Each structure stands twice: as structure tokens, then as C-alpha cells.
Known about the structure:
The chain is an alpha/beta fold. The longest helix has 17 residues, at 36-52.
Amino acid sequence: MENAMRRHTVADLLRRTARRVPTKTGLVCGDVRWTFAEFDAVVDSVSAGLARMGVAYGSRVAILSRNSHAFAAFRFAVARLGAVLVPINFMLKAEDVAYILRHADAEMLAVDSGCAELGRAAAAKDTAVRQFVWLPSEDSISAVEGMTSFDDLAATAAAPPEVLQLASSDLLQIVYTSGTESMPKGAMLTHDAVIWQYANCAIEVSIGVEDVVLHALPLYHCAQLDVFLGPAVYIGATSIVTAKPTPENLLALMARHRVTSFFAPPTVWIALLRSPLLDATDWSSLTKGYYGASIMPVEVLRELKRRLGQVRFWNLYGQTEIAPLATLLGPEDQLRKPGSCGRPALNVETRVVAEGMRDVEPGEVGEIVHRSPHLMLGYLNDEPRTKAAFEGGWFHSGDLATIDDEGFITVVDRMKDMIKTGGENVASREVEEMVFRIPEVSEVSVIGVPHPKWVEAVVAVVIVKAGRELSEADVITYCAHHMAGFKVPKAVVLTDSFPKNPSGKVLKRELREKYAQVFQ
């Protein structure tokens, strides 16, 4: 009982906000509009229904769904029971989803109609999933047969059981990051870690109770879920939720709801700038713009500042393992320090180090490392990679960067050749292994190169076996059949040789330089 009196968990946040501002609009999605009191009541009902289905403290509950009011409510309902949420990327193939379900030992899977077939196919691949919950979408659509309906759970008047043993240090979620290896890693994040990060966002990212926040990027991703949705609920800001990040839909929602705050990767900002509807839309309410997940081209940033003069911009940098915000570049430094990811955020200590954990000199390249109360506990069931990640008492990001004499950090490379395309992480090794399955391939090296739409795109550089024939289309078609769309190479370059060092390692930096103009 003493623990319950002192507790501060994600399970408590919505209830406290509902008591502070019960009649304020908390969430809007399509035709659904909830005050914070209504939002809280729905979460109570869904939580009670999940408890009747056997979800309890410590249960692993996965969600495979596009954005919706139901996704948001389900997130808080799971937390209210002390269960552990496992959000999954809906763009993955069934085998990838199945791996996550097995690795996390998930017992229940929540899906929307668009992901139902994928979810069932994945769950059938030797997983522990035996129960499905259907989540309604932004647009009105019928429930999937054979699944427990979210709407039925939400309509039941019941109170969830009080979970007295739930503590702030307990596991809240396992978020899978592809990292740089072919198999994803499950970052274990506690209630404490995520709430420390919420406080960080409220102060540093300037999320206020008066804000109307548009959530358009996938909620399975920690950036939208925990840098924006969670803090908005914590503070009492209004959330507008959509699953359609198209310029037409975004512009309409911004005008209709007088949106004040919006986050998107550079690809979406670029699409907005190129939309013929932009100049005809009333943007006057939007005052806070955020970008992250990949580098914003400086020329695009200048165009945004020119055409959306009233909007203050922030560049947000981090990773799943730190829940995820680590550093930020504020509005006053956008054009003064273009390309920089800024300085450490509140509650974060960040260094750029060389071998032996020596701090680099200004301009010298080193690895970004962090200490923070919102770091993960470690990787689920993976002690070797956890130990490596925390070597020397700091979390190793795997990103190479420089730091200037004012402490501003600029990412210059990814230590293990991570590619960020359209805001999604792609492990080059995973794509290489797939291309290697093609019988005609002798060698392959996968790199990321600049792209006008995706900012960075996956390119496969291939050496064909002597006497064999292979086309660009052959490689792309093969990958598209076996991989999620965002992992498929946008271009394939056929070559006779690779630049290599004396030990035989391919020099990817030289490949990136050589093929940097492939999409120009």
C-alpha cells in the first residue's frame, strides 16, 4: 500500500490529468472526440476487460496497428494493469513480426483491420499468442471476426483491478530496434525511464497545456509515442491522432483543429513544402515544428524558415534505448548551427569519445555516449549486447560525431552502417544477407546515399558472378518479395570491384562518396 501511495508510473498519468482538466479535449481521431475524463473512463473499461481476458502484472502484450484513438487508449490500459507493451512496426514481414512475438514472449496481440492478416500469420509461427484484440481505426470499419473488439471492451462499465505491486522501476515496454544487426534487439524501458523522458520533453521541447499536438507518424515508434503523445497526455495538451501522413490530410487537420505543434521526419516536411495546397492553407496556428529520425538538409530547413516564418523549429536526436530523446538543437540555433543535433537535453549527460573513453577535441570524430535516468535497463535476453552497449559505464550510441567548442554535436557517420530512410532504421547487413541469397551475386555492399524524397535511400552495390547475368530489376524484385518495403534497395549499382582495406574490409565511406549522386 505504501508503494501505491508514492507511485509515479505511466499508469497514473492519464488519471491525474483527467482529474486536473476533466472537460478539456484530450484526444481527437476521425469522428472520435474524448475529453480527458472520457479518455480516462475508456482506458479504465478497456483495462478491466483485458484483466478479464487474463492480462495481469508482467504480461507481455503486443500491438500491431496504425495510429488511432484505440492505439492511444490501449497503451494506457496495458500500463494500468502493470503489463508490458510490445509495439511492433506494421511494415515488417510476418517472419519478422513472429520473431518479435517469440522473443518478447507475447501472449496477446492487438491489431487493426489493416494488420489483422499480418498479425494472424505471424502469431501462427510458433508464438505464445493465443488472444487477439481488434482495434478500430481512424475511419469507421467493421470489426474482424474471431477477435475481441476494443469497442466492446470500452463499452463495459467496470473498474480495473488495482495493481498494488506496480512500481516506478517496473518494466513498462519492450521496444524493438533493428540496430545494425539482422535480428532486432528488445530495449527494456521502465516507467521511471519513460517519465523522466516526458519531463525532459515538457521542458526542453516546450510541450504546453495550451498545445494542440498533431500525431501523424507511427505510434509504434518511440519518437511519436514517447516524445509527443505521452508528454501531451502528461501535461494535458490536446492530441489529434491520424494514420495518414499525407500532405492533403495533414494540411486539412492543421487548419481544422488549429494545430500548434507538429513533429515529422524531413521526408514529410519536404512533402508538405512541395504540396500545391500549402500556400492555400491557414498555417497561422502552427508555432512549433519538430524534426528528427534523419538529417534535415540545410536548404530544406532554410525553405521551411522562409515559408513558415512563424514556426519555431527543433531538431531532436536520440535512440530507442534512451526513451528516446538525448540531444536537441533549439529554434535559436537552427541556422547558426545547421546540421547539428545540438546539445544534451535535460536529464542527459552526453560525451563524444575516442578509444579509452577519452573526450575528443573540437572537430575530432568520436562516438556519442550517454548517461541518463531514461536509459533502458538493457536488451531483453541479450546479455552480451547489453554489456557491450554499457561498456565503461556509459551507453554507446554507435553514432560517430564531432563536437565543437560550444558543445554542439554533429553526427557524421554511423559506426555500423545504419541507414535511416524516411525515418526508418535499415540495417545494411540485413539487406546484404538478403541480396546474397540471389545465386548470381558474388559480392554485395549496401549503403545509404542522399535522396530527394527519402533523405537517405538504400542502395545495393553488387558484383555479379563471372559468366552470370543479373539486372537491377532482378535484385529489387527479389528483395521486395522477401523484405519490408522500406528495406528494399531504391537502386542497384552493378560493378566489377569494391574499394577495400588491406584486411579485405569494404570501404563503405568510399562507396558512399562514389555513388552519392545516383539519385541526382
